[in-house]
Specification:
This protein is of the alpha+beta class and 209 residues long. It is 26% helix and 29% strand. It has one domain (5-207): Nucleoside Triphosphate Pyrophosphohydrolase (Alpha-Beta Complex). It is built from 4 helices and 10 strands, in the order βββββαβββαααββ. Strands 1, 2, 3, 4, 5, 6, 7 and 8 form an 8-stranded mixed sheet that branches.
Length: 209
């Protein structure tokens, strides 16, 4: 279950827990990482260190679990001061480099589940549902979709991320036009190299920093 500790020795201090809703897209499916228990499940969690900011604690937890220090999107806080506060962050996990046979990183005892049916059904499912809704919004109107593909991606790979997150089927030609608009607006650039596929080489793109 989630870990919560006091930040200071005073017994009246509120206990704060940092929880992370980690999403990935694999085989066209949006998945969330959970930690199964005997009769429930929890999210990867930890406690902030003394004098550590909440965002700093979230980045440290993500670095410990996933081996990378990436920006975490704060979702919200749950609980009561007398009982402890859980502050939830969203973390988006990109696929491993295709040139390196790396495994997906998981928390100790953690597993990846379909984000729309995380089982067992008991547990912090409301936090996951809210995180999914926020992610859908960030993918549609923001840059979140680019965090779920490799730095160099094809239009098809990015479209499958959008489909998996939003739970819809998108017209390939219309989505290609959307990417073309991003190129024209200077958000994305097309790279000179191509990626080999079973049919023909695919165009590669990357997000412009």
């Amino acid at each position: 279950m989630s870990v919560a500790v006091h930040l200071t020795p005073e017994s009246t201090e509120t206990a704060v827990c940092i929880e992370v809703v980690a999403f990935r897209v694999r085989h066209g499916r949006l998945e969330v990482q959970i930690v199964p228990g005997d009769h429930s499940w929890s999210l990867p969690a930890g406690a902030p260190l003394r004098d550590e900011t909440l965002s700093g604690a979230a980045r440290r937890l993500i670095a410990d679990v996933f081996g990378e220090d990436r920006r975490a999107l704060q979702l919200g806080a749950w609980g009561q001061p007398a009982e402890g506060i859980s502050v939830v962050f969203i973390h988006l996990v990109p696929p491993p480099d295709s040139d390196v046979r790396a495994d997906w990183q998981t928390a100790a005892g953690g597993v990846w589940r379909d984000a729309r049916t995380p089982r067992p059904v008991s547990g912090p499912h409301k936090k996951v549902a809210r995180a999914m809704a926020r992610l859908q919004q960030e993918v549609e109107v923001g840059m979140a979709g680019f965090s779920l593909v490799q730095p160099e991606f094809t239009v098809t790979e990015l479209r499958r991320v959008h489909e998996a997150v939003c739970g819809v089927s998108l017209d390939p030609s219309n989505f290609r036009k959307r990417v073309a608009r991003w190129v024209a607006e200077g958000i994305v650039e097309e790279l000179p190299q191509r990626r080999a596929t079973a049919t023909r080489p695919a165009r590669l793109y990357r997000l412009i920093d």
